[in-house]
Amino acid sequence: MRTYVRVIFNSEGADPQEVTRVMRDLGFEESMGMHDFVYKWKNRASIEEVLGLISTMHARIKGLHLNYEVTTIA
């Protein structure tokens, strides 16, 4: 199971390297292609667990002036 995040940067926002550090700290890996980051779940996650991860990510990137899109595939 994987959760993918596509980030839309803002020229007035955080540097992409700073965003990458934050995402790595959360357990995401960089990804090439349609999505910028991927979280690889060790086991099948519940909706609550996915929402918890995204809520944590949302709080950590708050103030970085980013938009993002999340896709989770079981």
Question: What's the structural blueprint in terms of helices and strands?
Answer:
Elements: E1 2-8, H1 16-25, E2 29-30, E3 37-40, H2 47-61, E4 67-73
Antiparallel strand pairs: 1-3, 1-4, 2-3
Descriptive overview:
- With 74 residues, the chain is of the alpha+beta class.
- The chain has a single domain, classed as 2-Layer Sandwich (Alpha-Beta Plaits), CATH 3.30.70.
- The protein is 34% helix and 27% strand.
- It contains 2 helices and 4 strands.
- The longest helix has 15 residues.
- The radius of gyration is 12 Å and the shape is globular.
- The termini are close together.
What tags apply to this protein structure?
single chain; 74 residues; alpha+beta; Alpha-Beta Plaits; four-stranded antiparallel β-sheet; 2 helices; globular
Q: What's the CATH topology name?
A: Alpha-Beta Plaits
Largest sheet: 4 strands, antiparallel
* Uncertain segments: none
How many domain units?
A: 1
Look at the structure and give the mean pLDDT. Answer: 97
How much β-strand is present in the residues? 25-35%
CATH 2nd-level architecture: 2-Layer Sandwich
Provide a quick synopsis of the model.
With 74 residues, this protein is α+β, with helices and mostly antiparallel strands. It is 34% helix and 27% strand.
